[in-house]
Amino acid sequence: MSIPDYMQCAEDHQTVLVVVQPVGIVPEDEFFRIYKRITSVAQVSIRDSQRNLYIRYRHHYLPENNEWGDFQTHRKVVGLISVTTCGSAKEWPQTSDRFHCQKDVFGATLYDSRLLVFGLQGEIAEQQRTDVAFYPSYDDCPDVEKRVEDFVESIFIVLESKRLDRATDKSGDKIPLLCVPFEKKDFVGLDTDSRHYKKCCQGRMRKHVGDLCLQAGMLQDALVHYHMAVELLRSVNDFLWLGAALEGLCSASVIFHYPGGTAGKASGREPSLSLMSFFPSPLSLSPPSGALTANGISADTSSEIGRAKNCLGPEDIIEKYKESISYYGKYKNAGVIELEACVKAVRVLAIQKRVMEASEFLQNAVYINLGQLSEEEKIQRYSILSELYHLIGFHRKSAFFKRVAAMQCVAPTIPEPGWRACYKLLLETLPGYSLCLDPKDFSKGSHRGWAAVQVRLLHELVYASRRMGNPGLSVRHLSFLLQTMLDLLSDQEKKEVTQSLENYTSKCPGGMEVLTLPDGLKLPPVPLSKLPIVRSVKLLDLPVSLRPHKQKGLLENNLSSKSPFIYSPIIMHTRGEERTKKIEFRWVQGDVCEVQLMVYNPMPFELRVEHMGLLTSGVEFEALPAALSLPAESGLYPVTLVGVPRTAGNININGYHTSVFGVTSDCLLDGLPSVRTSGCVVEVIPSLPRLQLSTSLPRSAHPLRPSKEELSSSVSVQLFNGETQQLTITLENIGSEDLETLEVTSKTCNTKEKLFGEFLSWDLEEAVSQLPLKPGQSVTLTVNVKVRLDFSGGENLLQDLNDDGISVTGLPISSPLRQVLKPRAETKALGSESSKTDYNHVKTLEAVMTFKYSGGAGKVEGYYRHLSLGVHVDVEPSVFFTRVSTLPATRTRQCHLLLDVFNSTEHELMVSANNNQDLVLHPSECQRMAIQVAKFDFHTLPQPDQEAVRYTNPKLLEEERLHAQASMISSTLGITWNIISFDGEASVEGVLNQLVLEHLQLAPLQWDVVVNGKPCDCDIIADCKVGDAVPLEVKLTNRSKNAVGPFALTVVPFQDYQNGVQNYDLQDAVTFIGSNTFYIDTVKPTENSVCMGALLFLYTGDFYLNIKFQDDSAGQGKELPPSWFGLPSVHIKALEVRPLSEHH
Amino acid sequence: MLTRLKTQVPLFSMNSYTKLGEKLKLSGLSLASTHSHVIRLGRHNSKMAVCIAVIAKENYPLFIRSVPVQNELKFHYTVHTSLDVVEEKISAVGKAMADQRELYLGLLYPTEDYKVYGYVTNSKVKFVIVVDSSNTSLRDNEIRSMFRKLHNSFTDVMCNPFYNPGDTIQSKAFDSIVSAMMVQAS
């Protein structure tokens, strides 16, 4: 007996052994179908008696094991069921012979046998035989179970008779000595008459009867017999049989205490059995649980009491097992019995949950030597040890033995190594090493397990799967090893592992599919998220010029309706939301979008990552994969992944895709808690056109200084103040959508400088008329750049240039155009360079032109794009006015504007103005220029409407008014300068002060003097005839806002001799008709008043009339400014009335 | 109990594994012998341990050192499987009187070559000492004192503010204590 049945358990002692075997050629599957049906009859309750018979079936049983049948009767084959196929009656005799041969194998021990014949029909099949049953086919055999039950009953009858036979013949005849095979020779020549021998025989027989009682379902009797046997055998030191008797006692007690059985769940053992089928091994099937039914015990109460007395307690069972095993241990040939006893004891202890003791039994079982074991037997033994350790909850031990079994499968002594079995066993060890092949599980848990053994196990899995011829599995396991154990591998190991990974992937590239093993185990994909390690994911906005903007009017209410509060200091988002948080900016369909990853390479060598792309959802997305090469143990390295969204909607960046060492991985961000991200959802809007801008001016090297907004491009140009430059802008549609709308706006920035007039002006009409612009087409736009800045700030420095003290008085100066060129100014300017540069500095003017455009589907959604062009102009001073003053002109409605013009350029320039002669200025020369201008009537300027007035700052309003006045003056003057080819305008706006303005303004009281029906002014000479009455009319028009007057005007005539003498004594020459004083009553605003008088000249000559003004309203109101009373002096030439005198 | 029964020829003479290991090594993967190699060491200094391990509460090694360095993996397996017994012993006692539990667990299990002793701190950190089973002169008290020393040294390691609980122990002081207890590799 060399092959132990590891499946045995204590309750097997009460079973009878039946062998079921095929005879002749029986298809295996058919046989096992029948076998299965037969084995379903595992427990038969016997009529008349309330006992149960339990049957253990085997389809394979070694005859040498059968020889131990006397030692323990459950090892004895008592029944044989043969299954055979018989096609015709001709074959029948042969089949029958075979059956008898088979019977002879177990012949000595058999109680009964049956032959099941399939396929035979006809005459032979008709005959009724108890030992043979005929069935037409394997499918048509309805009463197999019934047949088996009958068979079992017949076995029972034999068993019962044997039991009774043995139990009763205790006295009288000589009791035969039962012995085990290896004892037989020991008893040769022994004294059979000795007391010792007799006791030995008695004891062994008692034990045998006990076995039979147990099998026959008489537990009580069995216990009694066992007790007696133990006593008898102990007295004669028959240790082997004493052990057997003790074990029988234990078995019976176990059956009593644990009616559920000790074998555990049959299903739990099934996988290992199927595994074992790889090697030929005895297939064991233990009886189903419930071995002892309730009615079996409660048959009679008296036996119940007796049982309790004879039965061992749970503690005792183990003690007796120990004793029994120690006795078995004395015999080398009883190794199998000992081993099986150990296994049985362990199962009992597992039920009792006495784990430590169980482990000691197992520890002992490990050391039991069964002589030379075949490799299969070794595997079987390790497997069963593993299972038993598993049973008692020693998972690590269990895994250890399973692994040993796996290694045994591929031992070099085996001619055909069972790599498949090895691999399968290795997989089963995974839980014992707290390893799970799902990387998600691994990254989640804080449990780390025993890394050293885990790494080893993974290596073995890799190797076994490779030898199995499944490189896909190897790749998967290696990936897992790399992914989960990376931190634990040394640099050398990392190199080795990656090298072998590359080797395997060259045969079978690794992917993201779930690998399913033949037995249904699924190997989840292993994304290599640590090669490289990604630290952060950041979605990037489009470049400035491509960013879409929402039309203001269409802006939906962005306030989230989540909270009823407009503002709450409590931020409601959690960490989880962060990832799904929507990002402020938008992407555009059809435009390349970017995501920046910060990655690093943890490997000690260069890492090549191929096909790195984005994984997205929500929107059709065309990822454009990148390949990168990261240096060994690189620091954080930015990687930009790009792609093009092909449809509109919300896009979610779920993760990224890589291909490293031939393994493609989809790394989802959800599974990578260490990755920082500021949101992964972004809105993709429908496509928009794209414009490219080019200009005629060179690109600016320096960006605009206060560049709050980012610019698409910028140009720079250098201009003299007042100069105008044309800028041609070409806009080309480089997108795929039609350009439908285009708007241009501009904004001047850094307005510290005072700017006059429009800086940038353009006409969009022509460009707009070309819309819609097809892709590839372009449109041009001409922009006028005009700089008019105030450079007059340096006037203080030029104080000495105009310190001639020209005052603004009402006195007429006969020679208004006076050159005030002063040579000393030149010398001074040359002498002090510093002061020159001070007012020679270059000013900068910057503006941003914005081109808003839209088209295509994006326009429908209300989106537009804008390009912004920065215009940077360095303005060099050209001419400026250091000082301005006025002189009254000869006419009251006019005046002279005196401008000190300074040429700050290094070139000779020419200044010209409307109605004036040109003035040539040398570099750094200052000249005074006088321009006669008609006084301005600012009332004609458009008045700001009342609404605007009410809501604007009065100061601002005033400024605006001044500005309007100044620009009116400036445009009237039309001062231009010219340097060879350049020309530009010069503006006086900056230098005009309040006083000058007042002088340039028409007085609100307008006086008109009409002599002889002819309006008079300073330089007009009115003719009249001596002796004629000359009518004089003075008309006052009040244009001021208040009523004026009353006034008194006195007309005083005088003669100017042109030598400084004025003769007022003219009573003889001129006489007034009526009063020489006019009284003007109060004149209301916008009204006028006319005074009439007349003069009579008595002599010829040049007369002047001085109209003196006398304010009669003194004391009633405020003084009116004297300039309001600018009455013209009247020059009258009295002529002789020649025809009349001739007439005289 | 059962060990007294008999000591038969060891079943686990795993020469075959060693060969397998060599075979695997040739193919690029090193698969060392997995089980008891019969290398009897430390005869000359038999009072010492051959392997000392510190295992975290979560059952992963914080520290492991063995004398035949070339066959360290074997001890990894030995110590790893001993955890079954440790856990069993803790849970068996733990229910009844967790407070009075003795830290010293005694002999965990004997293998044919070694004896494995265990010790569990109150924070469930385990110490395992493996000694040569041929070493009969070693008394239980000596094992206890070794564990006590080990525990004291471990406490010092834990007191180091720069030590992160759960990390592998790299303290030199601890290392020297362990070295003193171990058989010097000859």
From TrEMBL, chain A:
Stretches assigned to the Trs120/TRAPPC9 fourth Ig-like domain: 1023-1133
Cited InterPro entries: Ig_TRAPPC9_Trs120_1st, Ig_TRAPPC9_Trs120_3rd, Ig_TRAPPC9_Trs120_4th, TPR_TRAPPC9_Trs120, Trs120_TRAPPC9, Trs120_TRAPPC9_N
Trs120/TRAPPC9 third Ig-like domain mapped to chain residues: 889-998
Keyword Nucleotide-binding attached: no
Domain of life: Eukaryota
Family stated for the protein in its record: Belongs to the NIBP family.
Protein name (record): Trafficking protein particle complex 9
